Amino acid sequence: MPELSCQDLIRFLDDYVDMTQSDKVRVAFDGHLKNCPNCVAYLKTYRDTISLARGACAEDAAAPPPDDIPEELIQIILKSRPSD
Known about the structure:
By secondary structure, this protein is mainly α. Helix content is 65%, strand content 0%.
């Protein structure tokens, strides 16, 4: 398999994180990551974003907001949510 570019890695990042790629493609991705600290950093932020998004949908997301968030901001956010 030809060497992957940073653009290739970004294009297929979801498959890489979900581990739905072929072994051959995964090996190529891993090879690229060994030599590209920028893509390693990008992958970390991608995984962090997924983790944060899942956390936002967890049961704890229904917890009351922290005390230091202004009530006005909370009301603006609530009003901007789409209605069902």
